[in-house]
Amino acid sequence: LHLAAEEGHDKTVELLLQHGANVHSLDLGGRNALHRTALNGHASTVQLLLDYGTDVHTRDFFEGTGLHVAACNGHDDTIRVLLAAGDDIQAKDDNGRSPL
User: Which InterPro entries match (predicted)?
Assistant: First the structure.
């Protein structure tokens, strides 16, 4: 799921989720699939993961959210999707940085 999400393969992500992939699973860095797809700016995949119940507030081992990742990489469309889903623009990572 994480690899398909990271690459923005919406059809594959949806197929995996329909067949029981855990939308809440974390990789070794504490990132969920939302973090991984936000990294590459795949806004439609972010929305798909949100539709399947991923937690927009999940933080990785550095206390970063998907919004931190999207903002750091300049993915405006992904930022809009995450903000509409309620991600916290004031959330601070372990270095005290917000997505702003």
Answer: ANKRD_45/46/60 (IPR039323), Ankyrin_rpt (IPR002110), Ankyrin_rpt-contain_sf (IPR036770)
Give 60-70 pLDDT, tens digit per residue: 888 999 999 99
- What is the spatial distance between Cα 8 and Cα 21, in angstroms, rounded to a whole number? 16
Closest CA to 80 of 54, 58, 50, 53: 50
With a threshold of 0.70, does the pTM exceed it?
A: yes
Q: Quick check: 57 and 34 in contact, CB under 8 A?
A: no
The CATH number fitting domain 2-84, selected from 1.25.40.20, 3.30.70.260, 3.30.1330.60, 3.40.190.170:
1.25.40.20
